What we know:
This protein is α/β, with parallel strands linked by helices. The protein has helices at 21-33, 44-51, 70-79, 94-106, 121-131, 154-160, 209-229, 242-245, 248-257, 273-278, 280-290, 309-312, 324-327, 334-349, 362-371, 387-397, 400-404, 409-420; strands at 2-4, 13-17, 37-41, 58-62, 64-65, 68-69, 85-90, 110-111, 115-116, 163-172, 177-189, 193-195, 235-239, 267-272, 295-302, 317-322, 353-356, 375-376.
Amino acid sequence: MIAMRSSGPLRPLAFVLDDEIAVGTMVCNQLMINGMEAWQFSDPHKFLKEFRVSRPKLIVLDLALGKSDAIEVIRKLEVMRFTGRILLISGRDKRTLDEIENIGRSHGLHMLQSLQKPFRAADLKNRLLAATRPVLGENLTAASPAGERPSIELADALREGWLEVWYQPKINLQSLSICGAEALIRARHPEHGMIAPADLLPPPGDPLYRPLSAFVLRRAMEDWAFFAERGLPLKLAINVPASVLNTPEFVDVFRQTVPSGHSFPGLFIEVTEDEVIADWKGVSEAMAQLKLYNASISIDDFGTAHSSLSRVKNFPFSEIKLDRSFVASCANDPIKRGICHTVVDLAHRFNASACAEGVETIDDLRCLVGLGFDTAQGFLFAKPMSRSDFCGLVLSRKLEPESSATSQQGAKTEVHSAWLSTL
Length: 423
């Protein structure tokens, strides 16, 4: 083991396991440049021995390790309950990297987007930036001791008034403007700080989703009025479970809450694809009723439930949101790129819009623009944020996209880069 220590304040610890010493040294140097302390290993046994003593925040892992390999290490890291990030690097083909990356996820590990050797220092830096972002379900503050993930009861959060609605911007890929946002639930606990949905929401079908959905709808419509007063009549989206959507109570709340004036652009109701397929008749009937009050349905997490085209063709959807698992690395993966192209074509043939979820790299963004996606969301643009932060972001970007818009595809993606760099 070679420890590359930095002077000054304590830095996050990274382990690099690669049997090519020169490559491991190069990766460690780049980690140091980007503010981490890096320990280099070429022997998996020494790596695991040190891991039991010093838990790193990041592991950079080669696929082939002499008498061992990445899959064997992944299995052991699961047993040892590693909660940091893992970045796979290898000279093997991209498909092999993706397969082992998915194996890591299936073992409950937090896998970053893999890197194929040789790679640029900038590519590694982008992965390190991703390593600092919250994992889904991870506590969003440092209020709790390391290793703990506080969870709270939704019933308590509803009763005590801890719930908040945050917004993640949706980007129009033609005008480069913020055209809307998805409303996402958070809870601000007086002791534990901000609680993520994974540590708050009950299992699917729980009756508490009824008051929760009503809360999100009312708050989103209050916030829409707040935005509209400031000249931002954006189209918002809320998530509603199918078990709530087709209840008379929700329709009544919707009818009483949603504005009826011409200035209101409507509301997207996002229902996951698996729920659409499981209750096709009930969701279709509910949406036909809610369309009377200016609601549109968005099929969320599309591609994860193997839906039948015979059902989709009769479903009254206005948007397809392609799941992030197909969006990530679409620029470099021909299969994912083909799936993206198919989904855009499907949406447009039904006069619906196509939205890409989980956009995290400029290369993927350029690919999505070229394929004809209408909108996109993802950490590349912005994380979910409070109402005031979101309003400030939209106001700061309000006039620039229009003046920057161009019909030239190459220039348009370059404008994207310049615009995003200032967010």
